[in-house]
Amino acid sequence: MPLTRRHALAAAVCAAAASATGSAWADAYPAKPITLVVAYPAGGDTDALARLFAEKLATRVGQPVLVDNRPGASGIIGSAFVSKAAPDGYTLLLAPSTFSIAQLVLKTGGTSGYDVLAGFTPIVQTGSQPLFLVAGAGSGFASLKDAVAAARPGKPLGYASPGSGSPMHILGEMFARASGASLAHVPYKGVAPAVNDVLGGHVPVTFITLGPVAPYFANGKLRALAVASAQRTPLAPNVPTLAEQGYKDVEVTAWNGLWGPRNLPPEIVKTLNGHFNEILRMPEIVSRMAVLGTTPVGGEAEVLGKTNAADYARFGKVIKELGIQAD
Asked: What CA–CA distance (Å, rounded) separates 148 from 166?
């Protein structure tokens, strides 16, 4: 019995010490600059959101938060970099929902070096974004009907997306099936170059988030033909849904979220989640996110994890059914 008591006492002391150490670690975090990785070029909405959040987070934690753009392979390069980082809270990833599905389309077969479901620690879902079909002025399209009529067999209509495996790519292929339109995917390395080529008349239409294109609606350089959400969005209430125009079950909403490497300590997750929930409630942030076509989400870390898993399952099935692959 004495031996048993000694073991029990030792275990209790170790547990208390571990708890105190974890608490002290959380209290001391962050003790140096934080790197926030964006797996896309500067100029897109994910990059703009990252810089917005970095500014506010730095003020709250008293340390610099540096945005590090690591584009390539539809976000896989930047995501892989974060997956291999030390789980200490100093290397984080702000990712759009392409994160969930890019590997399925690019068919990396494990060569990307990370597991999208188990290889990261979810911290917080920062926002959700409706997706739009937008036409350039040079296309001559005044309505969705015009675009569908132009997408004829033998003369497919090109549509730009921010990359293979993006929600915009998946939406384009789902719409092609629903409408019978002949569409040709034109992938870009991020939102900004895709929008630039539609503005320049090199590609007639794009499936895209609202933020990068909204400034061009008033001057007529771009026109929103449809939104792919279940109902019209308050961000652009005059744009009809695809369902309103006869295309049911073509609903895709994008999102973005903050991730850490796998095994990020719960104390660090709690600290960052708390800061971001406060940031997402700031009136200034809500307003600036609206300009970027994004609605704040927030909540517990599990919200992001469940959203990621749901998209992986849903779009994995769609990708298989439609035979979607990288162009």
From this structure: 22
Please report the domains of the chain, with CATH numbers, ordered by start residue: 21-129+256-322 (3.40.190.150), 130-227 (3.40.190.10)
Are 239 and 193 contacting, i.e. CB atoms less than 8 angstroms apart?
no
Between strands 295-296 and 120-136, the pairing is antiparallel
Distance between CA atoms of residues 309 and 198, nearest Å: 32
Categorize the per-residue pLDDT at 15 as very low, low, confident or very high, splitting at 50, 70 and 90.
very low
Q: Which of 283, 310, 259, 286 is nearest to 81 (CA)?
A: 259
pTM equals: 0.85
DSSP letter at 192? H
- Please enumerate in sequence order all residues whose Cβ is within 8 A of that of 13, keeping only pairs 6 or more positions apart, or say none: none
User: For the chain, how are helix, strand and coil distributed in percent, rounded to 5?
Assistant: 45, 20, 35
Tens digits of per-residue pLDDT, 240-268? 999 999 999 899 999 999 999 999 999 99
State pLDDT tens for residues 141-197. 999 999 999 999 999 999 999 998 899 999 999 999 999 999 999 999 889 999 999
d(CA 264, CA 195): 36
CB atoms near residue 295 (< 10 Å): 17
124, 264 contact by CB (below 8 A): no
CB atoms within 10 A of CB 64: 13
Distance (Å, rounded) from C-alpha 36 to C-alpha 63?
Answer: 13
- Give start and end residues of each alpha helix (H) in the chain: 2-28, 45-61, 76-83, 98-106, 144-150, 167-179, 191-199, 266-280, 283-291, 301-322
C-alpha–C-alpha distance, residues 25 and 6, integer Å: 28
Whose CA is closest to 249, among 163, 321, 194? 321
As a whole number of angstroms, the distance between CA 134 and CA 295 comes to 20
Kindly write down the DSSP assignment for every residue of 270-288, as one continuous string: HHHHHHHHHHHT-HHHHHH
177 exposure class (CB count in 10 Å sphere: 0-12, 13-18, 19+): middle
